[in-house]
């Protein structure tokens, strides 16, 4: 601070060395205030008229300054910072109590050091650089909302309309630079950013060539949202030139800071056709309607003689004079004097500098100013503890028609954007939620109500450089034909289909990344975006957290996630593998049924069928042979009884089911592999010390090491599916961890491996773009469209058809359980049992009949040995039926001759 002050002193020395005679303009009855404005500037003219009117009003009201007369001493800076500083110094040499101005911030930065030392408050309503509000300048008070608020309002508007990127055009001076920093900060808070800063020479030095150059630069860039922050004269040139370059047209969004609203208010009739800035948005400091304000507007015509229209800065000029007058009045009423004493630093210097004096009541005046509480033309006037005005607010205007505008809403620091005046909101709780932000509809450049997208594909003559991984494995995803250099693959087709859906043409070239000998490193591919070597990366690129911190990804176009793939032992290869299809009980019951069926058929057949007769030993063999030969439908013995045929039919059906189930199950066992019990997913894999195969170049290696803390020594980089197969088969690795799309292809080609456990990450593949790239947003919409219209699936079906290994997980699922066949066995057993009962009944009936006849007609003639009934029945049961029948008939004929 002292350094700056000394600089000013040196400057002073140069200027005053020849002697600046002290002009004491503060005579006993006068209170002099100075003003520094460019009198020919729009705000300079308005301010001058308004300040004079205020001075007249003060002097005509003895309640303010009593018998003192307020005198306004003006200085014309004439668009020159140097002149402005000189004017300030002259004022300070004449014992003024305060200065209104300076008009611009660079003057304010210098003069405020002097003001600090001489205790002369500077009150400016046009030097609105936010940095001037800092504690460094205690004697500088901004009596209009400073640009921090205007920039916050613009950031809120940009956010409200959903734009993310903004180009700014501003003059390279302190006023604009500070404001642009504030705008950048405010945009960043809303996740938006300034993508291009077009700087014009300060003050009036900007030429048509300068302006044309920056406009051409803007037209070549992506953002179509342009903020113009400049002096009124330069701002008008910018929009005029933009008009002639057809840039104030469809697709563009122009936001001019308050300079444009002052032009619209103060020089409405000056607009030539080339200065009709249809659709441009601008801001105007908001001053609430009041009777005072209306009266002043009515009075303005007389005051200005119709030379210029009143704008809010005229109201602030009037109020600033009133603020000073009331504060001086307070000083006087509290017994203070308008007196000046020599400054200890300056008085030690030679020449006229020593005549510069410090305002004795300056500190008190400053306090009074800061404690102002009054109602003025601009509404309630008071300052916050940080010296900024209370209730900063802006009107938001939409240029509409020749030099006209429509107000589309308000912005207030209290509630953000609204369509009701801010003063109506101050009584309600502040609500800055996005749902509460509101503006009326806008007529955009090009006379359209359709909101511009705010972004175009950059027309800078350079096609988009799309980096693609030059894969050597899994080439179905992305590959380049070495001969034709043709790029193809699933990911490329998705990209081409998506880019076709963009509402603009995006010329692009593919730039292969990698040496073509091994799969490239995908992290390095992403890094190429951040270094600017490529504009985007397309391919099988996983969306992982680390990458999302450096680039923006589109929506995922395919799901991905990490899988563990392991080989499994073929359980069917053992000597006793054939027993596996059935469980023990199943084998036992099946065997028992074969025997049982043999017995049942024998019982049913042996009395009528010679093939089931013979010596007992032969009958036993026949019985067993018959039963088991049904297993192959190879039984040769005929069945003659109806019951026997019925039982056989049912049994053969059961046998058919059992044998076909056995065949299916055994086939499956012979070809299916089984998970080694130690690796059942990522958890169990982590707990082993086994080597793990990972794809070279993929993020998986880092992920396993960084996130799952698997030592790098366990991670073996593998290149091709063939190498993976070999490594798993030979045991070089116990498992492979890779992304699902790769593994789906791998497993469909190598059926002897399988995935174990769940996917342990959920992610997807997307296309990568630089941070905040609007292209990423548009591509995301296009990918969603592809997904909705089924195109994404069609592309997937075209490239990623996988073969079905027709095998599921083998964990103990292949043995056929008895329960699965119990219905069949029950049916067959019940039928056999019923058949036996029926048969037995029939035999007993026949036996009784035969036995009765024999008892009636035959008695042992010669004492032949008597037999028991059971022996007789068994004998009867053992004999062939027709033998018995014929014997019975014979006996009968013997008895009845
Ligand atoms: N898909 C391989 C990677 O994204 O690293």
Q: How do the strands and helices of this protein lay out in sequence?
A:
Layout: H1 2-16, E1 30-37, H2 42-59, H3 62-65, E2 69-76, H4 81-92, E3 98-100, H5 105-118, E4 122-124, E5 140-142, H6 147-160, E6 165-171, H7 174-189, E7 193-200, H8 208-219, E8 225-229, H9 232-244, E9 253-256, H10 258-266, E10 281-285, H11 291-304, H12 312-333, E11 340-342, H13 344-347, E12 357-359, H14 362-370, E13 373-376, E14 379-382, E15 393-399, E16 405-412, E17 416-418, E18 464-469, E19 479-480, E20 487-488, H15 490-500, E21 508-513, H16 522-530, E22 536-537, H17 545-548, E23 551-553, E24 558-560, E25 562-567, E26 569-570, H18 584-605, H19 616-629, H20 642-671, E27 673-674, H21 682-686, E28 692-695, H22 700-707, E29 715-718, H23 721-730, E30 735-739, H24 740-749, E31 753-756, E32 763-765, E33 768-770, H25 774-788, H26 791-799, H27 818-857, H28 869-878, H29 881-895
Parallel strand pairs: 1-2, 1-3, 3-4, 4-5, 6-7, 6-8, 8-9, 9-10, 18-21, 18-22, 28-29, 28-30
Antiparallel strand pairs: 10-15, 11-12, 13-14, 15-16, 16-17, 19-20, 23-33, 24-32, 25-30, 25-31, 26-27
Helix pairs in contact: 1-5, 2-12, 4-5, 6-7, 8-9, 12-14, 15-25, 15-26, 18-19, 18-20, 18-27, 20-27, 27-29
Glycine binds next to loops.
What does this entry show, briefly?
With 897 residues, the protein is α/β, with parallel strands linked by helices.
């Amino acid at each position: 601070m002292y350094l700056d002050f000394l600089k000013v002193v040196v400057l002073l020395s140069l200027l005053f060395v020849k002697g600046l005679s002290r002009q004491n303009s503060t005579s006993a009855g006068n209170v002099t205030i100075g003003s520094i404005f460019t009198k020919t500037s729009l705000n300079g003219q308005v301010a001058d008229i308004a300040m004079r009117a205020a001075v007249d009003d003060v002097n005509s009201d003895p309640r303010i300054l009593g018998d003192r007369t307020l005198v306004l001493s003006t200085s014309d800076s004439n668009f020159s910072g140097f002149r402005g500083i000189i004017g300030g110094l002259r004022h300070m040499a004449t014992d003024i109590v305060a200065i209104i101005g300076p008009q611009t911030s660079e003057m304010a930065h210098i003069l405020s050091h002097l003001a600090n030392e001489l205790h002369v408050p500077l009150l400016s309503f046009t030097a609105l650089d936010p940095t001037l509000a800092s504690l460094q300048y205690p004697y500088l008070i901004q009596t209009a909302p400073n640009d921090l608020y205007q920039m916050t309002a613009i950031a809120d508007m940009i956010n409200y309309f959903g734009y993310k990127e903004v180009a700014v055009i501003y003059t390279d001076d302190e006023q604009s630079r500070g404001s642009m920093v504030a705008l950048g900060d405010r945009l960043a808070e809303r996740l938006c950013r300034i993508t291009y800063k077009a700087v014009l020479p300060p003050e009036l030095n900007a030429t048509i060539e300068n302006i044309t150059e920056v406009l051409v630069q803007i037209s070549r860039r992506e953002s179509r949202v342009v903020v113009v922050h400049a002096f009124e004269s330069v701002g008008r040139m910018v929009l005029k030139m933009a008009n002639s370059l057809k840039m104030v047209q469809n697709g563009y969004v122009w936001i001019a800071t308050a300079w444009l609203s002052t032009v619209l208010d103060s020089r409405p009739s000056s607009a030539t056709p080339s200065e009709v800035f249809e659709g441009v948005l601008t801001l105007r400091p908001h001053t609430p309607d009041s009777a005072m304000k209306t009266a002043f507007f009515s009075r303005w015509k007389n005051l200005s003689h119709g030379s210029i229209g009143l704008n809010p800065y005229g109201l602030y000029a009037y109020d600033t004079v009133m603020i000073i007058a009331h504060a001086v009045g307070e000083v006087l009423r509290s017994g203070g004097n308008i007196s000046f004493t020599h400054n200890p630093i300056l008085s030690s210097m030679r020449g006229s500098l020593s005549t510069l004096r410090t305002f004795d009541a300056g500190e008190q005046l400053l306090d009074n100013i800061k404690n102002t509480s009054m109602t003025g033309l601009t509404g309630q006037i008071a300052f916050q503890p940080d010296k900024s005005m209370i209730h900063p607010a802006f009107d938001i205007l939409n240029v509409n028609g020749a030099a006209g505008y429509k107000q589309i809403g308000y912005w207030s620091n209290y509630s953000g954007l609204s369509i009701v005046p801010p003063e109506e909101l101050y009584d309600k709780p502040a609500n800055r939620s996005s749902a509460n932000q509101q503006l009326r509809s806008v007529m955009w450049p090009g006379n359209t109500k359709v909101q511009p997208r705010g972004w175009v594909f950059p027309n800078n003559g350079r096609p988009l450089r799309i980096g693609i991984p030059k894969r050597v494995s899994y080439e179905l995803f992305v590959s380049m034909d070495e001969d034709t250099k043709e790029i193809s693959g699933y990911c490329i087709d998705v990209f081409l289909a998506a880019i076709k859906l963009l509402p603009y043409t995006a010329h692009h070239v593919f730039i292969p990344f990698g040496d073509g000998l091994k799969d490239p490193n995908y992290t390095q591919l992403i890094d190429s975006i951040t270094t600017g070597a490529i504009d985007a990366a397309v391919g099988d690129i996983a969306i992982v957290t680390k990458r999302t911190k450096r680039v923006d990804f589109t929506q995922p176009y395919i799901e991905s996630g990490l899988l563990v793939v392991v080989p499994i032992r073929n359980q069917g290869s053992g000597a006793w593998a054939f027993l596996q299809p059935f469980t023990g009980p199943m084998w036992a019951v099946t065997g028992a049924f074969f025997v049982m069926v043999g017995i049942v058929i024998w019982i049913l057949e042996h009395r009528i069928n010679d093939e089931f007769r013979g010596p007992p030993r032969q009958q036993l063999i026949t019985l067993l042979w018959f039963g088991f030969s049904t297993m192959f439908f190879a039984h040769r013995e005929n069945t003659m009884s109806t019951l026997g045929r019925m039982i056989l039919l049912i049994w053969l059906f059961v046998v058919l089911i059992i044998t076909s189930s056995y065949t299916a199950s055994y086939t499956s066992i012979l070809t299916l592999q089984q998970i080694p019990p130690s690796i059942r997913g990522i958890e169990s894999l982590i707990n082993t010390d086994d080597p793990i195969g990972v794809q070279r170049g993929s993020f998986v290696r880092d992920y396993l090491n960084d996130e799952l803390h698997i030592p790098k020594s366990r991670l073996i980089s593998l290149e091709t599916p063939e190498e993976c197969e070999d490594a798993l088969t030979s045991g070089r690795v116990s498992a492979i961890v890779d992304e699902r799309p790769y593994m789906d292809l791998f497993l469909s080609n190598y059926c002897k491996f399988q995935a174990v456990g769940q996917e342990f990450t959920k992610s997807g593949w997307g296309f990568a773009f630089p941070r905040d790239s609007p292209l990423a947003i548009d591509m995301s919409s296009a990918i969603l469209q592809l997904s909705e219209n089924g195109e994404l699936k069609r592309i997937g079906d075209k490239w990623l058809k996988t073969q079905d290994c027709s095998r599921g997980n083998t964990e103990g699922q292949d043995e056929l359980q008895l329960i699965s066949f119990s219905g069949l066995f029950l049916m067959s057993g019940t039928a056999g049992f019923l058949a036996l009962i029926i048969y037995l009944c029939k035999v007993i009936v026949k036996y009784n009949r035969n036995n009765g006849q024999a008892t009636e007609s035959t008695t042992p003639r010669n004492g032949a040995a008597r037999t028991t009934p059971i022996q007789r029945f068994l004998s009867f049961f053992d004999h062939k039926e027709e033998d018995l029948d014929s014997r019975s008939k014979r006996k009968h004929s013997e008895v009845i001759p």
